[in-house]
């Protein structure tokens, strides 16, 4: 799951995901939307693939990228669950902090 949040931390990768939300795209289609060097864009796509946020499909000689919404949904649900558990954890409550020793 850390790979997902690492991938989402970068604004360029978030922009790529937003574009893929609208439609599947080739690497060339994605590159046309940015002024990035090809190796830089390839690096971003590799991070998204490693995090399983996108799926790459070969159609003939073309690589087509698709957004994998299920992974984003799972990450969101896990984050929401973690935050909810953190707030309800009595060991983290300020009411249960040990009293300071009196003098």
From TrEMBL:
Respond yes or no to whether keyword Membrane is given for this record.
no
Q: Which Pfam families does the annotation name?
A: HTH_20
| Gene3D superfamilies reported in the protein's UniProt record | Winged helix-like DNA-binding domain superfamily/Winged helix DNA-binding domain (1.10.10.10)
Q: Which PROSITE patterns match?
A: HTH_ARSR_2
In terms of PANTHER family, this protein maps to: TRANSCRIPTIONAL REGULATOR, ARSR FAMILY, TRANSCRIPTIONAL REPRESSOR SDPR
Asked if the keyword RNA-binding belongs to this entry, the reply reads: no
Source superkingdom:
Bacteria
Name of the molecule in the record? ArsR family transcriptional regulator
Chain ranges of the HTH arsR-type domain: 1-87
Which species is this UniProt entry from? Acetobacter cerevisiae
GO MF terms, alphabetically ordered: DNA binding; DNA-binding transcription factor activity
Sorted alphabetically, which keywords does the UniProt record give?
Answer: DNA-binding, Transcription, Transcription regulation
Q: Which chain regions cross the lipid bilayer?
A: none
């Amino acid at each position: 799951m850390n790979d997902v949040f690492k991938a989402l931390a970068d604004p360029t990768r978030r922009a790529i995901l937003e574009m893929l939300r609208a439609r599947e795209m080739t690497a060339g289609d994605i590159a046309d939307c940015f002024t990035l060097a090809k190796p830089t864009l390839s690096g971003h796509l590799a991070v998204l693939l490693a995090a399983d946020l996108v799926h790459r499909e070969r159609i003939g000689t073309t690589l087509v990228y698709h957004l994998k919404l299920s992974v984003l949904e799972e990450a969101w649900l896990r984050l929401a669950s973690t935050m909810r558990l953190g707030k309800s954890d009595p060991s983290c409550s300020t009411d249960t902090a040990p009293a300071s020793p009196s003098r």
